[in-house]
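hiii, so i know i said id send this last week but things got crazy w the move. better late than never?? heres the sequnce for the chain we talked about at the cafe, plus the structure i predicted for it. fair warning i was half asleep when i ran it
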Amino acid sequence: MQKPLMRIPYTGPLPPPQIIPRNANTSPGAVAAFSRFLTAPPAPELHGSTTDPSSTVVLTGAGISVASGLADYRGTNGTYRVNKTYKPVYYHEFVQNHEARKRYWARSYLGWSSLHKALPNATHWAIKRLGNMGLVRSVVTQNVDSFHSAAHPELPTLELHGYLRALTCITCHNDLPREQFQEALSRLNPAWAAFLAEAVASGALDTEDPEKRRAKGMKTNPDGDVDLPDAPYWTFRYPACPTCLARPPVGADGTQTRVEADHEGAWLPSSTAGILKPGVVMFGESIHPAVKDAAEQAIDGSGRLLVIGTSLATYSAWRLVRRAKERGMPIAILNLGGVRGEELFFEGVAPGNQGEYGVRADWAADRLLPELVAQLKRSGFHRSLETDEGTEGASFRSNSAVFKDMLS
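okay and structure toks below
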């Protein structure tokens, strides 16, 4: 397999944050600072055309899904901290290498059951309520778990790095629901299906604790990836794109493609098309220009930016915060641990700032945001809240459903 040509950025710990304002080092102080941030008048430094200068756009990362039982990358127990040998499959490897796809889909097959049954947590529901209060206008997320759209379908959400709820054919670009694909994987790989059933029954996939994972002989990584050391990945089979298999398309170069499958429907390497990839932006893959434009429009459409649960290690997210800073937008960051280049985002914040011009706090979002919502409600920001009390279970829909997003 070709060695990746790019380095995964910021896999080690980042410098600890400088708390802003100082009293945000306590929970009540942080709640007060974020309350001032969300309810302050538009910043006088804000420039450029803005649809709603009093509103906030939220940018989230993998850290907010840890409370749902999912792994993150750079947190205290993140994959890059506890699994030093972890290397993701790069886009060029996936597209070019049949064996790389076997390995990817085998690991994804084992991890899907845990991801599929996971639910949004207190952070997602708090963002929903902030939206209902009229304080949050939209969400841009790096996460691929679809929790935002499940928890608050009425609040526009842009999935910057795609989603795992469906697959896309790299030839015809048609989508296939992940549940349908998972069923096909079970049918094509009965031995793996039996192993998965045993693992689920034993609870081996129910924990994200690194020591418990190792004791059970597996490593669970972000985005539904389960690593079994010494597993026979070469035996795994995956289906061809059903659309391309039924009617092989003409390729981009004008030649007729060939899509072949065995008698059970597994893709054969003699094919020249019909490869399904996850609906996520893989490592080394570019974000679609329309998604980049929509993310920039989300930043430009609001007057302030709230960053939650991300170290901003990926440039695609970091550049959005830089854009907000260049537009004069106040920025608040709620994240456990350091954030890439965060000192830049708080340059020029007035010494007397109590949160209205910027906040940096080092708290778990699933603990602090519900306290923030409660404080705002006590302060009078409670319009529409009565309509969503107790709706967490009712509002959640399957990750395989079609969700409203900012591109629909």
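btw The two ends are 38 Å apart (CA to CA). thought thatd interest u
miss u guys!!
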